[in-house]
Amino acid sequence: MEVLTSVATGLVGTLVGAAIAWLAARKSHRLEISFEMHREFHSPEMIDWMERHTETDQREQWRERAERMEDPDEPRSASPDDSEYCPTEPRQDG
């Protein structure tokens, strides 16, 4: 009976230890992946790509907005939430 008890205790201890090790490894792997993605997102190639595409998209949007405007002399809203707001132009209060 003593042998059976010690074998069962050893087996339970092994399974609990394996579960704890698996959980720790899983958490460590997630953290490693997060750091790897962060490193990739802030790499020089990704930053250059984002700058190129962001500038192109913004220029395109501003051109479309300018084409839609009927009267260029009409004052604009100073609110950045306004759909016609363009951050490169000076704000007009009033």
Describe this structure in words.
The protein has 94 residues and is mainly alpha-helical. 69% of the residues lie in helices and 0% in strands. It contains 2 helices and no strands. The chain has helices at 2-41, 44-68. The longest helix is centred in the first third of the chain and has 40 residues, at 2-41. The radius of gyration is 30 Å and the shape is rod-shaped. The N and C termini lie far apart (91 Å).
Estimate the global geometry from the Cα principal axes.
rod-shaped
Helix content: 55-70%
Helix-strand pattern: HH
Major beta-sheet overview: none
β-sheet strand percentage: under 5%
Topology:
Elements: H1 2-41, H2 44-68
Question: Brief description of this entry?
Answer:
The protein is mostly helical.
Can you tag this structure with a few keywords?
mainly alpha, 94 residues, 69% helix, 0% strand, single chain
